[in-house]
Design a protein that fits this description.
- The structure is a single chain.
- The protein is of the alpha+beta class.
- The chain is 28% helix and 21% strand.
- The chain has seven helices and eight strands, in the order H-H-E-E-E-E-H-E-E-H-E-H-H-E-H.
- The strands form two sheets. Strands 1, 2, 3, 4, 5 and 6 form a six-stranded antiparallel sheet that branches.
- A hairpin with a 5-residue loop joins strand 2 and strand 3.
- Helix 1 packs antiparallel against helix 5 and helix 5 crosses helix 6.
- The protein starts with a helix and ends in an 8-residue tail after the last helix.
- Keywords: Calcium, Endoplasmic reticulum, Glycoprotein, Isomerase, Metal-binding, Repeat, Rotamase, Signal.
- InterPro entries: EF-hand-dom_pair (IPR011992), EF_Hand_1_Ca_BS (IPR018247), EF_hand_dom (IPR002048), PPIase_dom_sf (IPR046357), PPIase_FKBP (IPR052273), PPIase_FKBP_dom (IPR001179).
- Pfam families: EF-hand_5, FKBP_C.
Amino acid sequence: MGRGLTLLLLPLALLAAPAQAEGTAAAEQVQIEVLHLPENCSPKSKKGDLLNAHYDGFLASDGSKFYCSRTHDQGHPKWFVLGVGQVIKGLDIAMMNMCPGEKRKVTIPPSLAYGQQGYAQGKIPPNATLIFEIELYAVNKGPRSVEAFNEIDKDSDKKLSELEISQYLKEEFARDGKKRHPSAHDEILADIFKKNDHDGDGFISAKEYNVYQHDEL
């Protein structure tokens, strides 16, 4: 499944991520240095937004580079949803209120990175303080935005029926244009309700859908 369709289906299929504390004490432990700020700094990133960025990671202890997004995945910038644990907690904090074109250098303590265990596969030792140089390219509405919910909720009753989601899937499959097994639609629909209809009432409520806790819903 291509990235485009994957992102289109994320509003429904994305598993609820554990909530992460964003207390002031934790945020103060991440040191942020703004290296470049565009004259027009908008929009600014917030929890639940879909970001596209390049970043290099260094060990603070000796300055050695352990990661460079420009040398992975054919050098494409990385896509991820901010604030839901798809990156280490320190990066979730460090990239809040950041705008496209902005560059930051951030220092992240072990408690907000890989902690006492480290990350051997990534060549990160235990209790390592990490430094990242980040360049943000895009800030998009996240896959569970209010806009995405309202697009699917055709009758505006603040809950998604099986019929509404089924129709949404058909439209996205048609827009994507790829050939799929006839059973793909029913399998995805069943999986969506299995993962999101927590009270089993046959609908996905705004609360069940809203893993990022937007006030608008």
